[in-house]
Amino acid sequence: MPPPRSKREKNSKPPKPSQKKASKSARRPFAKSRKVAAKSSDGRIGKLFEGLVAVQARLRAPGGCPWDREQTHSSLRTYLVEEAYEVLDAIEAGNSKELAEELGDLLLQVLFHADLARETGAFDISDVIAGIHDKMVRRHPHVFGNVKAETAGEVLKNWAQLKAKEKQATPPKGEASQNPAPSALEGVPRNIPALLEAYQMTRRAAQVGFDWERVEGIFEKLGEETTELRAALAASNRRATEEEVGDILFSVVNLARFLGLDPEVTLKHSNLKFKERFQEMEREASRSGKRLSDLSKEKLEQLWVAAKIKASAKLPLEFKS
After folding, report:
1. How many domains does one find in the chain?
2. I want to staple 59 with a disulfide (CB 3.0 to 4.6 A). Which of 65, 70, 74, 93 is the partner?
């Protein structure tokens, strides 16, 4: 398997069962497929999955693909992240055909890592499947057991409690079983983007009851952090300024989570709006034979307002601001 490439280069990848032909338009609803049925009753899923597992094993076997045979868990990290983001792009585009292909690429990464582990005797794909199957049954006692959970909030709270019990029952390697229960924040990776890390930590804290009672409290916190930032700026204290800016960002992430929003998604939407408006400013300036750097602050503001009106008209109503 050749290494995954950027979206611009993906057309050069070897042909796959599903080829990307549809263009991406921002946030359009997923096209309704005529084939709604999952076809899970005819046994095709199991056979197809086994076939894919065999293909990946063949690529790694002697005489297989030289590139695949050179890969390690470490070398594949970049591609795993890349494929995950390409899935997000397909969701953003609302293209079901493209989403199916990108999910396939992501699934291949899972199989690749499982195959590497199989070769060392650590585990194989059956262990991965069995593990997540058992976990989903175990973590959903309101579905497969007698526990009551009427709301999504109750489900998340039960999930957090069950996870904590499991971690306590199986302490990390090298630690005694009599150790206190692990932190609710355990398992939040440090190597993920800071925005996602903050979101995950505040969400887990909220699941154990450490949360704001009302949104006004977060606004008050933002005001407090802003005051502290102004004080740091007045004192020309760069280290304190950096810390206070971080506190403001953290509070904004907490605000998004409290309102039931994913901060990464909301920021992506704002990034798109800015990009469209700024590029419209550039086009408008170019029509006058000028560059943005040649214009005054007042003219730039005029172009921004005009671009905002024009770009907003292209977005669905719920994304206009």
Report:
1. 3
2. 65
Token duo for residue 49: 């999955």
The three-class DSSP label of residue 186 is coil
> Is the same domain home to 122 and 14?
yes
Domain boundary among 211, 235, 258: 258
Across 203-230, average pLDDT: 93
Q: Are residues 207 and 282 in the same domain?
A: no
Looking up tokens 């060392």, which residue turns up?
120
Specify the higher pLDDT residue, 230 or 92: 230
Under DSSP, is residue 288 helix (H, G, I), strand (E, B) or coil? Answer: coil
Report if residue 33 sits inside a domain.
no
82-110: average pLDDT: 92
pLDDT digits (tens, 9 = 90+) for 244-299: 999 999 999 999 999 999 998 899 888 888 988 999 999 989 998 999 998 999 99
If you ran DSSP here, which 8-state letter would residue 11 be given?
G
Q: Which two tokens stand for residue 26?
A: 């921002």
Candidates 218, 316, 226, 314; CA nearest to 261 is 218
* pLDDT above 90 for 110: yes
Burial environment of residue 56 by CB neighbours within 10 A (0 to 12, 13 to 18, 19 or more): buried
Q: In whole angstroms, what is the distance from residue 208 CA to residue 93 CA?
A: 35
CA angle 113, 50, 45 (to 5 degrees): 115
Query: What is the separation of C-alpha 85 from the centre of its chain, rounded to a whole number of angstroms?
Result: 7
Burial 196-230 (b: 16+ CB within 10 A, else e): ebbbbbbbbbbbeeeebeeeeebeebbeebeebbe
